[in-house]
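Per your request, structure below.
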């Protein structure tokens, strides 16, 4: 038994990835014909890895994330993921007629968790995002930060290996965002999830990630990537975070200049 398990783990390790994006291109039909948005993107996310995808507005970050989520198909290339990913967007997309707890329970129900286990599991998830006691709160009674915590708990309820996040904290004030960065880093470390996190905020990318991947614009290509060795927990105002952010910003500015955006 132990040998079989060890073998399985060994076999898995050689091909294991949470997401594999291979030579992916995406075009959309526009007024001037086909518009190439993503051009030959190759990128892997390792199991348990935290990767941020950084790029100027309109460079194709959401398009790529949607492809990884399976919401759309690439024009060319291939995407494989370890199971079905969970998604979290800038807009919380909670059902306003359901309570915080019921929003989470619905995700458990959809993945077939028996009714008798749902309430307990929901309470655990609420605790994980530090919203214990908020089961019965309605969405309109929650602050923006609390809503994003519920949305995160709901994403975690899907029990996916891969969490895809598209600017989930962009609409929050700086202090709330800071707290949620800490929470996300803690939850990532506790759960061993793989995260692909989209942002156009350089400091946020550096604050969170083990690896920052910079996309160029028009078309989106992998311009450069950085491994972030700064130990966690980091603060957005830490000197090494600021230093690396400055370096990345310079490259990003160059990319934006080259493509005539502002
Ligand atoms: N369904 C679609 N049909 C046509 N064009 C699209 C579609 N989705 C995205 N695009 C175009 O693809 C480009 C990239 O859009 P995308 O939303 O991926 O950018 P983004 O990097 O996420 O930008 P932002 O930071 O502003 O969210 C844009 O020019 C957009 O107009
Ligand atoms: Mg976007």
């Amino acid at each position: 038994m132990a040998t079989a398990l060890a073998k399985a783990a060994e076999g898995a390790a050689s091909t294991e990835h949470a997401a594999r994006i291979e030579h992916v291109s995406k075009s959309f039909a526009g007024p001037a014909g086909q518009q190439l948005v993503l051009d030959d993107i190759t990128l892997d996310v390792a199991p348990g890895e935290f990767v941020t995808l950084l790029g100027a507005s309109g460079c194709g970050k959401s398009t790529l994330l949607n492809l990884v989520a399976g919401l759309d198909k690439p024009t060319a290339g291939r995407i494989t993921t370890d199971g079905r990913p969970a998604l979290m967007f800038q807009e919380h997309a909670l059902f306003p007629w359901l309570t915080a707890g019921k929003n989470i329970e619905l995700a458990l129900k959809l993945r077939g968790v028996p009714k008798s286990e749902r309430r307990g599991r929901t309470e655990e998830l609420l605790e994980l995002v530090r919203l214990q006691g908020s089961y019965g709160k309605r969405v309109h009674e929650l602050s923006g930060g609390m809503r994003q915590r519920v949305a995160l708990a709901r994403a975690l309820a899907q029990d996916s290996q891969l969490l895809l996040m598209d600017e989930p904290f962009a609409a929050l004030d700086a202090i709330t965002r800071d707290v949620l960065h800490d929470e996300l880093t803690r939850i990532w470390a506790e759960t061993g999830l793989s995260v692909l996190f989209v942002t156009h905020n350089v400091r946020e990318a550096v604050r969170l990630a083990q690896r920052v991947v910079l996309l160029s614009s028009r078309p989106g290509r992998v311009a450069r990537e950085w491994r972030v060795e700064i130990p966690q927990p980091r603060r957005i105002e830490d000197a090494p975070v600021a230093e690396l952010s400055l370096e990345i910003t310079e490259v990003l500015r160059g990319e934006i200049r080259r493509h005539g955006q502002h």
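The helical segments are 2-15, 61-69, 100-110, 115-128, 144-157, 174-191, 202-208, 239-258.

Regards,
D.
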